[in-house]
Amino acid sequence: MKSADKLTRRLNREPRNHISHSQILLLQVIGGMYCGMKYVFLFLMALVMPLSAMPKLILPTENKAVFQQRPNDFFMYVDRHFEGKASKPWSAGTYGFVRNMKRTSDGVIGTKFHEGADIKPVRRDARGVPLDPVVTIADGVVAYVNDKAKGSNYGKYVVVLHDWGEGPICSLYAHLNKVYVAVGDTVSQGKEIGLLGYTGAGINKTRAHLHFEVALMLSNDFEAWHTKYLGVPSGHGNFNGRNLSGMNGVDLIAKQQSGSVSSIKSYLRKQPAHFAITVPVAKTAKLQKRYPWLWRAAQGSHPYTEITFSGSGLPLWAMPSKRKVTQATITGLKEFPGRHEDRTLKRIKGSGRKGEISESGKRYLALLFGE
Ligand SMILES: [Zn+2]
């Protein structure tokens, strides 16, 4: 799959903030007089970095095999039965369309989206019960704890909220055996928040793993949406998994450690886009307030906004637009041989350049745009 497809390229033109040559020269002179070349660099960095920025992240368990080119020791497999063959592919534990395989005109593809990483335990007791501590990837505040094994597909799970100057960024740790923290606790990076386990749906002792996500919050009034469409509140407030749109957290950590990514914004700008939706600007006010950095340019007097999404519906960036629409309209679509249903969680129907927002797609947009 080409990561920089046409849609990604088209929407990839970003206005950049430059410091002028004369400003740099001035800073070098002052900095140089002050404390030598090493400090010039630090001085410049302090000027261009926001006050709170993404710190150096760490993996959430002792398992580091993904950084040692042993993905099969890192990602938990699923038991797959496809076209008469049984297999245990580790790839099904990675982030993406990696499950519920289907033979299509686009080849054999996964049609079910896995919105996180399933990380294998590295330690078990004599009875096979995992012993891996689960730790926070960065400093934060415990925003949600579900300490009941039932009532969520995630089983027992913890959500930690991080302030990296980019709005609410959540890390989520699921299928835990035990939880060691409570809502409101301030946790520092590496703090043990629970024990890896196998609570929740579709999991057993053999396949025990940590389901790990890094996510944006789609709505700050999730239960109103849930009640409107499903009749009752979900019981997990804004920290229901459906309100947390996950990115590839393990890839984020790897890219940050290699130096190619420094913020959630810079990470999302590089992700492959699948579709773009244009709406009247009033609909995007809440999203813009929560994540202003999604906007690649000031909204100004443009009356419309085009938001670009990954296939799973993760908002990647937004652009002011003059294109007149009365309701949410598809204004960009990735071209590939298959059906959009298979690559958008059925939110977009159709194929090729033609697409239509499905009923579930409309419900999804209602969540994001607060209707
Ligand atoms: Zn999972």
Helix-strand topology string:
HHHEEEEEEEEEEEEHEHHEHEEEHEEH
Strand content: 25-35%
CATH architecture of the largest domain: Distorted Sandwich
By CATH's scheme, which homologous superfamily of the largest domain applies?
Answer: Glucose Permease (Domain IIA)
The small-molecule ligands in this entry are: zinc ion
Helix content: 10-25%
- The separation of the N and C termini measures 35 Å
Count of DSSP H/I helices: 9
Q: How would you sum up this structure, described in words?
A:
The protein starts with 5 loop residues before the first helix and ends with a helix. The chain has three domains: 19-48; 52-265, Glucose Permease (Domain IIA), CATH 2.70.70; 271-369, no CATH class. Strands 5, 6, 7, 8, 9, 10, 11, 12 and 13 form a nine-stranded antiparallel sheet that branches. Strands 16-15-14-17 form a four-stranded antiparallel sheet, with no helix packed on it. A hairpin with a 4-residue loop joins β8 (156-163) and β9. It has nine helices and 19 strands. The longest helix is centred in the N-terminal third of the chain and has 28 residues, at 21-48. It has 371 residues and is α+β, with helices and mostly antiparallel strands.
List the helices and strands and how they pair.
Blueprint: H1 6-10, H2 21-48, H3 71-74, E1 80-82, E2 85-87, E3 96-104, E4 107-114, E5 117-119, E6 133-135, E7 140-146, E8 156-163, E9 168-179, E10 186-187, E11 192-196, E12 210-217, H4 222-230, E13 244-247, H5 249-257, H6 264-268, E14 275-280, H7 285-290, E15 304-309, E16 315-321, E17 329-333, H8 340-343, E18 348-349, E19 356-357, H9 359-369
Bound molecules: zinc ion.
Zinc ion is lined by residues 114, 116, 118, 211.
